[in-house]
Input
Amino acid sequence: MRESPRYRIAIHAAAILVSLIFLLPFAWLVIASLASQSDLLKIPLSFIPSHLSFSRYSQIFSAQSGTIFANFRASLFNSLIVATATVAISITVGVFGAYAFARLRFRGQRASLLLFLSTYMVPPIALVIPLYLIMVKLHLLNTRIGLIIVYCTFATPFVLWIMGNYFQTIPRELEDAARIDGCSRIGALFRVILPLARPGLLSTMLFAFLIAWDEFLYALIFTSTTAAKTIPVAIAEFTGRYTTDFGLQAAGGILAAIPPVLIAVVFQRYIVGGLASGAVKG
Amino acid sequence: MKPEHTQGPEPSHTRRRFITAGAGTVAGLYLAACGGSSSSKSSSSTSASSSSAASASTGQKVTLNNLFQQQAGYSAQDLAGMTAAFEKANPNIKVNNTLVAYEALHDKIVAAAPAGTYDVVLGDCIWPAEFGSKKIVADISDRVKTLPTSQIFPGALAMADYQGKYYGMPWILDTKYLFANGSMLKKAGVSPAELKTWNGVLGALKKIKSSKVVKYPWLGSWSQAEAVVCDYAQLLGAFGGKFLDSSGKPAFASGGGLQALQFMKAMLDQGLADPASTSSLEADVLKAFAQGRIAMNLNWTFQLAGAKDPKQSRVTKDDVMIMHTPAGSAGGPAPGCNGGQPVMITSGSKNADAAWEFIKFITGQNTQDGYVADSLPIWSASYNDPAVIKGAGKPLVSVAKTQLPDMILRPQVTNYNAASQALQVQIQDALLGKKSPQDALNAAASAFSSSGPPA
Amino acid sequence: MATTATPPTPTVAEGGTSWRARTREGRFALALLAPSIIVVFGIVVYPILKTLYTSLFAVDTPFSGHFPWVGLDNYKFAIEQSDFWSAVLRTAYFTFVSTGFEVVFGIGIALLLYAPLRGRWLFRTIVVLPWALPTIVNGAMWRYFFNAQYGVVNAVLTQLGITSSYHAFLSSPFAALNIVIFADVWKNTSLVAFFLLAGLTTIPRDLYEAARVDGYGRWGAFVHITLPLLRPVLVVVLVLRTIEAFKVFDIIYVMTGGGPANGTQSIAFYTYQRAFSDEYFGYGSALAYLIVLFILGLAIVYIRLLRSDWNQA
Output
């Protein structure tokens, strides 16, 4: 299908406009993290700072333990562990459940999927008080395991939902062929379905990762030291402590964003394929 | 790292308990794998308070878990220095300090109370009523009274007091001073003597505005937060108002309380206060002053150092003037808002004796005199000590000496947070012109005396 | 593809599904779902019930103990509060406006993501960026950008001559609420766009060819083919974003703290203040359940829409 030149120009112009809207705030965040304090406070603001320096980043990375900068580094590490473990657990348990929703027929199938999804509708605020007491009783307060367990409760329904729909799009004949060759159902799931569902699997992992990386309220209440504090809490603390240094806040924000942004950029080509079947069927 | 014997069983117990509680399958394996990597480290902070409790009486090592804040008053380094000195003097007591943002401090103390996570917590002067009545922190009157309390500023002691009992020991002592930019005053022909009363300040602001030195000569920290209540309290005190009458009923909707809000509103209406005031906190105000965008403001002590720091300030050192907060009328009262923060012992602490030793140490005159650059001591004698005067600077010590003995406390009510939130919103409604000051304060007063939800 | 094909064929041959085979399949499904059930409900069931229980008592301390039974008084108190209803209305406004913009912009960007652009991978990479930015960072970033004195937004507007002086955007309650919505839309439009892009890729190309033969223009094809076929995805996205928006808390905590003059206090933020700052735990629990009721009400509407699609499938 050949497109008219006018149409081609229009869509490229629109794409550039959208890109600018998304990129300019990022660009200013990067500049602010590198510009000197006096440049940032100058009025009228100069959009090209007089000189750039990486001193704020080295401040964060070279600070001694016990300082807020070192705590920030520890939170980056905690967030990585918590988000990765949440992805690992929710994907592992979710893949089996998703297979059940996709391939088996059982009573209460739709209702149970809705029940899973409805846990996501309950605001964290409703659960944080009694959950705190559970955390205390199980000695999980201020631990990464505690956060991982909590995060899995809302990441897993997502996995069930998206992966289940993805599995449905994989032709049944392929699985049947494998079973005729002597595979068990589980064997076929691992040998046939999962390899074919890799794009969907990867995009679901990204979803789960971003959900866990982003979570704030539970982490705020359940963690208090570098043993478990995650990045959103550290960022909130950081901006509270350095209200006067926008540049430092920007540097902290950029560091907090780098891991999920890198993962999202690497995965983005799979997201499309994965979502394509995951989202459509609701 | 020396693993203590008492901590050994904790993590594995936790792990086993979770696994048997449910996930016998793959989930369990995953959790177990995660547990191995993280629980050994993290449990030291959560389980230490209970594990060390038993050893307190036997002269073995005791571990204190304390909660402090990241910002304001003593810095993290100051606290680390005090703690190191304390541990050196008390080899049997180990101290773990956790620092959180001030905004999270209250919620953390409340959430941790049933678990007894912390021994010593940093409080705020508005919390003794709430924490004391709900038994979140312990009544330590008997311990405080063993100290020479007559040598402590009365206003400082008041920050830990609720209905005659001490629920903490004063540590950080602060109040809001009037700051002014000397060369801006000079440009507009204002003499510092005019700034002794609020009417004088108003006149000075008008002169500065009309001589076009700056567009908005004043910036208030009037954001929806405690900040606006502090500024309001200081004005209320100056105009002779009271938060509560002698029977504990709200009394701020008339007299000085009403005048205070009308004054704030007038500053905005006449273009003297920046409209950004209603979204500004103290740090924003400091920055505006340090950048030479405003001529005057009220702020805590930290503005003095901040405005003189060439790294964050464009104002020359000599232009930074710190003054006694203005009075409502010449020669009238001019109290500063009490911004003190006491240290408290939680009611769940099993190491109360060790906790008190720690508190006594960090609030002691010797310790406080050593860290005067960030916060002034609670001990009145310190203010005549040449070393303290040199360390904190003469301008600050001389104004502090007259203002610290005269402070106004925000109301000591058990539902302070709810009441204060109502007051903040009503003050903002008035400042934004949505209500008259009278209507706003009437509404706030009824929120003070309302009984609240069933719970 | 998914909307038109995949009939619900059972795994084994249709006629052979005996009662016994079905029970076996049910048991197998339960076994497969067991880990998910444990992971999700093992932890959540107790808090859900405990919160319901707490909401019926006058609980004003975090400690456990015996508290006076007040029945539904906490709920009654809530619906008598004008504060409560203002927060609900504000949250409804936030939900409606932010979700609306996200869906409208999301459709446009999805179409662009799908269009034959040069360097399409680069464009897709750029669009994914805001979605990956943590909400807390996003909130702090826009608070800084809209700062009354040093914010880049003020600088841009005045230097372009659009405004004559700096504005204290976040000082006016309604403007602040709209700025929070702006920040939310900026971040979450990407998510919506990618969901919708996924939907677009499943629409068979030959449908568009057919539409062209029938004489539809670009707009006609969009209205008669794209939108109807996107409906299932749109419903999914609407459900997701509506739930999220009605629970909004983080971005408000960071950007405005509920101010000025409670102008940005969402219902979740109101609940947080009552439960944690004021220590009205019973009341806070009742509020939480009222939020669940509101979300359920909205969700039921969407789920009705969802179900019609399921029945086709």
Q: What stands out?
A: Residues 122 and 247 of chain C are 33 Å apart (CA to CA). The two ends of chain C are 11 Å apart (CA to CA). Chain C touches chain A through 113 residues (CB under 8 Å).
